[in-house]
Every structure is written in C-alpha cells, then in structure tokens.
Amino acid sequence: MLTRLTRYGPAVPRLLSNVQARYVSQSKPAGAAGSAAVTELHPAAEAGHGEVNPYVKNPDYHGFSSDPVVDDWNMKVGFFFGISVVLVIGGTFISYLPDHGMRKWARREAEHLIVQKEKEGLPLIGENYYDPSKIVLPTAGEE
C-alpha cells in the first residue's frame, strides 16, 4: 500500500499549491518563443457586466447567501442542525426499533421458565422432548 502512495509524491506539492494567477501569452503567435504575462485569475468586474462571481467577493462562499456573514452563519446553522437531527433523532429511532428476531424476548422467556421449573422442583430438560404417549408411530405394514 505504501509503495502505491509513493507514486503520488511528486504530484502532492502541485495539488496543494493554490496559485491565483495564470500565464497567458499577450504576444502574437508569430514567433517560436513567446513571452508570458501574469494575469488575474478572477478579473475585476467590468462596469457593464451584470453577473458577478460570488467567489470574488467571498472566497469562502458556501452557496447559502451572497452576504459573507449570512452565508457563513447559514452554513454553520444548517450543518449543526443537520448533524444534530441525524445523530439525535436517528440514534433515538434506532434505539427504539423492535427486537430483531425476538432474541431478547426469547432469552427472557427461557430465564423465566428456568426459574419456574426450579421452584417446582422439575428437571430443566426432560429426557423426552415430546410426550411419548402423544407420538403416533406407523405400524410395520404401513412402511
């Protein structure tokens, strides 16, 4: 497993670096070697442009509101109540589910029968599971 992870070693610094600039050539593609200029990744909003990227105003945008304070508050409240509902109500629901296969009931019933038979002085397990007088065996001719 560790040998598989070492393959990704050289790529980790590239994945973790958060470069906010990109290199775009500003020269005509006539020459073999062109110069590169650094431009903004998020260009400033133009005056006539109607749509504004919410990530420019709030880099921690969660999608709840365009106001950064309200967006952060709504995200925290939503996750708190979502996780609380799942853990508290979900845990309560699971704990109040009925006994699967009635295993607990069967154990309680067996313990009750053991106590009852001990009080009456009877053996816990008889030598015959069924009453032999009630068993009907076929005759030799019916076989």
Automatic annotation (TrEMBL):
Cell inner membrane in keyword set: no
Pfam families assigned to the protein according to its UniProt record, in alphabetical order: ESSS (PF10183)
Protein family membership: Belongs to the complex I NDUFB11 subunit family.
Role according to the record: Accessory subunit of the mitochondrial membrane respiratory chain NADH dehydrogenase (Complex I), that is believed not to be involved in catalysis. Complex I functions in the transfer of electrons from NADH to the respiratory chain. The immediate electron acceptor for the enzyme is believed to be ubiquinone.
Organism, scientific name: Scomber scombrus
Cellular component, GO, one term: mitochondrial inner membrane
Protein name: NADH dehydrogenase [ubiquinone] 1 beta subcomplex subunit 11, mitochondrial
Superkingdom as given in the UniProt entry: Eukaryota
Sorted UniProt keywords: Electron transport, Membrane, Mitochondrion, Mitochondrion inner membrane, Respiratory chain, Transit peptide, Transmembrane, Transmembrane helix, Transport
Keyword Electron transport included in the entry's annotation: yes
Its membrane topology: Single-pass membrane protein
Ranges that cross the membrane: 77-98
Known partners and oligomeric status: Complex I is composed of 45 different subunits. Interacts with BCAP31.
InterPro entries the UniProt entry points to: NADH_UbQ_OxRdtase_ESSS_su (IPR019329)
Localization annotation: Mitochondrion inner membrane
